[in-house]
Amino acid sequence: MHWLNIVHLAQRRPSSPSYANVPPLDAHPAPSRPAHGLEPPALANPGVHYQRCLAQLRSKDKAIERNIYLQQLKHADEHMFYKLVVENMAELTPLIYTPTVGDACLQFSANYRRPEGMFISIKDKGKIGQVLRNWPRREDARISVVTDGSRILGLGDLGVNGMPISIGKLSLYVAGAGIRPASTLPICLDLGTNNTKFLEDPLYLGLRQKRVSDKEMDEFMDEFMREMRATFPKLLIQFEDFSTDHAFHYLDRFRHQYPLFNDDIQGTGAVVLSGFLNAAQLSSEASGRPLSDHRILFLGSGSAGVGVGMQLMSFFTLVAGLSPEEARSRIYYIDSQGLITADRPGLAEHKKFFARTDCPPLKDLVDIIGYVKPTALLGLSTIKNAFTRDVIEAMTALNERPIVFPLSNPVALSECEFGDAVSWSGGRVIFASGSPFAPVTYGGQEHVAGQGNNMYVFPGLGLGAILARVSSITDSMVEAASLALAHSLTPDERAAGLIYPRLERIREISVGIAAGVVREAQKRGVDGHKALRAMSEPELRTWVEGKMWSPMI
Ligand SMILES: O=C([O-])CC(=O)C(=O)O
Ligand SMILES: [Mg+2]
Questions:
Q1: I need a labelling partner for 375 at 20 to 30 A (CA). Which of 30, 468, 484, 529 fits?
Q2: Residue among 434, 134, 380, 410 at smallest CA distance from 247
């Protein structure tokens, strides 16, 4: 049976008018133009100017130059910037987000042009509230992406150079879910950096000191969160790219007190669960083996790796009908020392849950594949090309359609190139990567890579949470976002063998995710906007669509 029938999602799908036909419920102000005479007369034709901007963008050779052009355009003409992004999602997302945002972070101090977002440093401890009140659009703030720069993508500790990740994610909230630009607040916390190269770089824009102790960071974070609430009472917070132990620690510490989620743990988990549901279905259809037969092997056990494993537990419990204990037994982890077993001395706390008591401490990936016999191999290791030809061949020998997800970001750290995975598996691989890969032709057929990136989930999750005015984000809301995404594939996309919908439909998908999140918030009683409870499904979707901001060009 298809997993869709198993979780009865079909009944939850409302029929609603298409996004394009729904007039906005709220009046959004039109962009203001300079007074007459202060710009060339032909600029009054926005369609021509749109083509001019697109041509200027495409005239740049390097991705980082395109990124810089787009950042400049965002400041000069926000509506035009978002118009370009919304209408050219597949082309522009890799420029404003992963993988190019990785270079934008690495070069932030060198390429810096103008202030954007807020920088709160350890030196502000004791007066964080005073600093936050300097934000000019306090009343409007609804969503903040907060990083401490300590683990940016797979690039490690970049200190204050992590700011572009907060900026990039928030641009996707606007483009992908219609959050108003004025409601977004990028924040980079500066608690020092252990990146010696940056500490020695005269251009480095952050504090010239090593990271503070955990105790000092706890005190700082407690004050920061308290003051965030006092200054921005309607704000949802997304924690981004904190180092693994801090990512888990601060999610646990604050998630019941504040509306917040961690994108690397929960957003990545949700997006991979979603793709996995569709991939497992395709794989089981090819092999004739039941969904409950799947076994998942992870390379990498950081915040994203373990977050994904936690979320994939619900694949086995919800869809394959296993108990939580059986579900856990289907998931295996490898870290730098090999298969993670419970008897290993000094095992990190977050690795204990999935540590095996029934396996030898094997080290070599191909040996481990031979022992575990996984149906799926997931990479969150940031080890470039870790999935070698031998690895893909071993997966293909075991499975009619092996599931291979090299999820590390940016693309230069991917465990496997798409073209290699396709050819080494003889075209049989079911593939999703964290960063985008271009389609490849193999055996006379075009193969399209899925992109298992959290950008499919966080905009819609945030939109739903903001509109429902939630007091906290429950695990079940993250799961609802994941199921709504998995469910959003059109018959056409399913027929093409896709496991994620086409990115061009992101706004429509975000509506479905937001509506699912609102409903789940209501079930859990964490919704503040109680009037939404009375709406039918089509009414809720139409209302959500009407709340979305669109560029006015
Ligand atoms: O930003 C991305 O592309 C995905 C992500 O959260 C990460 O890799 O940390
Ligand atoms: Mg991240």
A1: 484
A2: 380
Domain of 540 in residue numbering reads as 3-26+457-547
**HEC string of 120-185?**
EEHHHCCCHHHHHCCCCCCCCCCEEEEECCCCCCCCCCCHHHHHHHHHHHHHHHHHHHCCCHHHEE
Query: Cα separation of 242 and 268, whole Å?
Result: 14
Tell me, what's the pLDDT at 32?
76
Nearest by Cα to 154 from 404, 325, 384: 384
Identify the domain boundary among 454, 478, 505.
454
What mean pLDDT do residues 424-428 have? 98
Nearest C-alpha neighbor of 425 from the set 456, 454, 447, 409: 447
Q: Which atom of ligand 1 is nearest to the CA of 169?
A: 1
CATH number for the domain harbouring residue 213: 3.40.50.10380
For residues 29-58, average pLDDT: 88
392's CB contacts (< 8 A; 6+ apart) are 402, 404, 416, 420, 421, 424, 425, 429
Ligand 1 within 6 A of CB of 195: no
Whole-angstrom distance, CA of residue 70 vs CA of residue 513: 28
What are residue 375's DSSP bridge partners? none
- Report residue 41's pLDDT band, with 50, 70 and 90 as the boundaries: confident
Element (H, E) at 511: helix 506-524
Asked which of 236, 258, 280 is the last residue of a domain, the reply is: 258
Pocket residue to mutate for ligand 1, from 100, 170, 268, most atoms within 8 A of Cβ: 268
The answer to whether the CB of 241 is under 6 A from ligand 1 is yes
Residue 448 contacts residue 501 (beta carbons within 8 Å)? no
Closest CA to 298 of 255, 257, 270, 336: 336
Rounded to an integer, the average pLDDT of 140-163 is: 97
What is the average pLDDT across 165-183? 98
